[in-house]
Amino acid sequence: MTASVGATAPPLPVRGGPLAGARRGTATVFAAQGAAVAAVSTTVPAVESRLGLSSLAMTALTIALTLAAGTGSFAGLAAVRRSGPVTVMRAAVLTAAAALLAVAWAPGRVAASAAYVLFGLALGAIDVSVNTRAATVERHYGRSILSSFYAAWSAAGVAAALLTAGVSRLGWPVQYVLTAHAAVVAVLALTVRTQGLVAPHGEGPAPAQEILGRRVWARLVPFGVVLLVAYVVDSTVSAWSTVYLHQTLAASLAAAPLAYAAYQAGTVTGRAGADHLVRRVGPVAVVRAAALLAAAALGALAAARSWPYAVVAAGCAGLGVAALTPLCVAAAGRLRPGAPETVLARLNVFNYVGVLVGAGASGGLGATGHFRIAYAIPAALALALVTTARFFRTDGARASAGVDTMPAGTGSPIPSARTGGPCRP
């Protein structure tokens, strides 16, 4: 299932071969997931209005979605072991498209709640399956391509947010807006093709037999903490920036999604140059700078006087947080190179806790009219991440030597960039 370029494995052609096709397919699924998440996040005010939901009720739905995503991650792990990552990620993206349609045309609150839960389950399955595929593809490349997958996710989020803003300006009801998003996500899923990547001889124990020991868990926790805070920031901006602009800063339904679009545009920009920057100055410096920028931007977002200022601040927040997730997930994925999906399923616990805390806490504060406080708190958390940068030094030093540790029995190390490893979403 997962594979690496070992000493006995012939190199796969990068251009025009199955490896290039696998990379394109993986990036497509990242894009589909980014578009689907943006579709849900940028239509929150419109769905609230159509169904007559309060902010607290919408917060409860967001929490239910996040819990479902955690369940879907572990269910996806079992499915990946049984059917392989490509089959699972294609089916999960199609399920996400169906869930968007169900949200769009739900006749009432109960049906809408079920649709959001279905979307969460699909999202979790996409996470673990596409991360597994990304890890395999990157290990075959033998160098870091991590940020390109993240950039595809963010770029699709920008496009989806602009789609929401555009069709809302035309006066389309939310049913048609979400239907348009569902169609885009479904088309992306249908373009994914299976590209066989041959596992090298001596890859190590099968994923189903992989057991994480206490030492691995201890090494995983610092990266999990970084991931948790990164997703507190991400979910606070992604889930509620549209509502913040609409309710607190008096932006129209057409202008409110622009903060989400700016945030994702910032992440695209940051991730486009993240690999190069890490190679030049190292992961420790990048984590510190990213945390400081994210903290400053979130503080500006909390203090914004009008929605245009908030849009700019959201873009800067995206630029700051862009490198945090790729770096910590890459480092965690290297703990078990032969079975990254096992580590990733565990690491996703931190991911979803971060989303749960960020979306739940900010939604609760927003419901009581304190959205500015909801952005000030993640600013403090992002600032605290400066102290965690030192945990990236060991992985960076290993990668700067050009090798990554292989599982027992593989034969020899493989070339690796500093951020080599699997990636999210």
UniProtKB/TrEMBL annotation:
Domain of life: Bacteria
KW Membrane (keyword) present: yes
Location in the cell: Membrane
InterPro entries, alphabetized: MFS, MFS_trans_sf, MFS_Transporter
Alphabetically ordered keywords of this record: Membrane, Transmembrane, Transmembrane helix
Membrane topology: Multi-pass membrane protein
Transmembrane segments: 56-80, 87-105, 111-130, 150-168, 174-192, 216-233, 245-263, 284-303, 309-332, 344-367, 373-392
Region (Disordered): 403-425
Designated name of the protein: MFS transporter
Species for this entry: Streptomyces cylindrosporus
Organism lineage string: Bacteria, Bacillati, Actinomycetota, Actinomycetes, Kitasatosporales
